[in-house]
TrEMBL record:
InterPro entries listed in its UniProt record: CenT-Element_Derived, DDE_SF_endonuclease_dom, Homeodomain-like_sf, HTH_CenpB_DNA-bd_dom, HTH_Psq
Species of the source: Equus asinus (Donkey)
Main location (coarse class): nucleus
Alphabetical keyword list: DNA-binding, Nucleus
Protein name: Tigger transposable element derived 6
Gene label: TIGD6
Length: 524
């Protein structure tokens, strides 16, 4: 009896608890799972009851999966400030020793007003355990060490080594690349020179920018729904809008953050789980990407640091093509307003979202494939010369469009269409924290993630009246009549219009059916 009373109680890490829960989720009997892991039925019941709590901890990366308890730090705000700083350093692949972390902790503690805090070795060990940090391996991956510059030998070495291992078990349909870009969505041609090279770290111009995340696969057969981040959480132009061609989020600077990126990743992981797919996702190591959630169906591969300009497919022409198409939409709108003697009103967020999404879906599969080939991730193949020639023709049309608008709006001669397209290429897309900003984040309770007010940065455009389903059907009928008076309209256009008609009629029919049923029930 004495021996039984002195039996040491077994401690389970969060990772071990997750394995137990997953075993139950797989369909195994609870009794069999308890025997397999050597636990009592009551312990198993406790794991299942607390699953939401530790799943959330692991997903948010607030503790390491090897942690056996979820006890909070004594100086919780110091702990959060140091960890936020560590995440930034970790993303930049800077080697950090324990003594460096202790010194930084003391500095941040003083800034927070703690004069008695001691960054002891014991505190450091507890800090490492809380966040699952192994100081002997603070760099992201060995592949990050392959390239400190853009030497061709290092690029070839990565092509011959790391990437072959990453893509070995995946088809081009299941290899994806995701990347963000900044967009000055209200930029006019005559203001190109002022915007060129602007990093837009804050201030008035932060209200005129968006950050867009794009993701596509190597075969060019799948482009994911864009994620667009603005500054205004509830812009006036989105009132009564319930469907958009993208996902829209907002924060104070219209930047990508860890929380937003992880939310997007979890959504993609859920879709892949539902489709019973496993994918490889290649990303860079910007600060928004450096602490990922627990993923079941996505293997993440990091592109070598400082080499995304030559190794990231989206950076090799895909995003540029999207911007060419987006700026072309803007030029067409400007030309139409000039022709009708209308003022050049500012673009609002909804118009920008619609045009960005339309530009993204219009990027051709052949363009996507060529950029993946240029990155050296999938093999080069022979291209059709006719396809190449056809791709040049739209560029000529766009140049003519630019020339017309440039003359009418007095654009300086030294500015060309490519300057207009690339004016926002240098925008900061994720936050780089300084010590003062870390402290502000602790004191202001996540102020850096708060969105701007609904009116800030939004163009002063009249609110659009709500359109009824009957009006929408009438407009579609008018559009069909207009197209029937035109010459040479492609069959695909009529096919798309048929799809719109079908959707509208299905909506109005369902509405009428529901109202009839309601009337019938009320008379009973």
């Amino acid at each position: 009896m004495a021996n039984k009373g002195n039996k040491k109680r077994r401690q389970f890490s969060l990772e071990e608890k997750m394995k137990v829960v997953e075993a139950v989720d797989s369909g195994k009997r609870k009794g069999d799972v308890a025997k397999e892991f050597g636990i009592t039925p009551s312990t198993l019941s406790t794991f299942l009851k607390d699953r939401v709590k530790f799943e959330e901890k692991v997903r948010e990366a607030t503790v390491g999966p090897q942690r056996k308890r979820m006890r909070n730090a004594l100086y919780d705000d110091i702990d959060k400030a140091v960890f936020a700083w560590f995440q930034e350093i970790h993303a930049k692949n800077i080697l950090v020793t324990g003594s460096v972390i202790r010194k930084k902790a003391l500095n941040l503690a003083n800034m927070l007003g703690y004069n008695n805090f001691q960054a002891s070795v014991g505190w450091l060990n507890r800090f490492r355990d809380r966040h699952g940090i192994a100081l002997k391996a603070v760099c992201r991956e060995d592949s990050d060490r392959l390239m400190n510059g853009l030497g061709i030998d290092k690029v070839n070495e990565w092509h011959a080594g790391e990437i072959i291992k990453l893509i070995a078990d995946y088809s081009p349909d299941d290899i994806f690349n995701a990347d963000e870009t900044g967009v000055f969505f209200q930029l006019l041609p005559q203001h190109t020179l002022a915007a060129k090279g602007d990093h837009c770290r804050g201030g008035k111009k932060a209200k005129q920018r968006l950050t867009a995340l794009f993701c596509c696969n190597a075969s060019g057969t799948e482009k994911m729904r864009p994620l667009i981040v603005g500054r205004s959480a509830n812009p006036r132009c989105l009132k009564n809008v319930h469907s958009l061609p993208c996902d829209y989020r907002a924060n104070q600077w219209a930047w990508m953050t860890q929380d937003l990126f992880n939310e997007w990743l979890i959504q993609v992981d859920t879709r892949m789980k539902q489709a019973e797919r496993r994918i490889l996702l290649l990303i860079d190591n910007c600060s928004a990407h450096n602490m990922l959630p627990r993923l079941e169906r996505i293997q993440v591969g990091y592109l070598p640091s400082k080499c995304t300009a030559v190794l990231q497919p989206l950076n090799l022409g895909i995003i540029h093509t999207m911007k060419v198409l987006y700026r072309s939409h803007l030029l067409k709108q400007i030309l139409l307003k000039l022709n009708s003697n209308e003022d050049q009103g500012k673009v609002d967020i909804k118009q920008a979202i619609d045009m960005i999404a339309a530009a993204w879906w219009s990027v051709k599969q052949s363009t996507v494939v060529k950029c993946w080939q240029k990155a050296g991730i999938i093999p080069m193949e022979l291209t059709d010369s006719n396809t190449e020639a056809a791709a040049i023709e739209p560029d000529i049309a766009i140049e003519k469009l630019w020339h017309s608008v440039a003359i009418a709006t007095c654009v300086p001669n030294e500015i060309n269409f490519q300057d207009f397209v690339t004016a926002d290429d240098d925008l900061i897309i994720s936050q780089e924290l300084m010590d003062t900003e870390v402290i502000q984040g602790m004191v202001a309770s996540e102020n850096t993630d708060e969105a701007g007010s609904e009116d800030e940065g939004e163009a002063s455009l009249p609110q659009q009246p709500k359109i009824t389903i009957t009006e929408a059907i009438s407009s579609a009928q008018k559009l069909r009549w207009f197209l029937s008076t035109c010459v040479g309209v492609p069959d695909a256009i009529f096919g798309q219009l048929n799809g719109i008609d079908e959707y509208l009629m299905r909506r109005v029919t369902q509405t009428l059916v529901d109202s009839k049923i309601t009337d019938f029930l009320q008379t009973k």
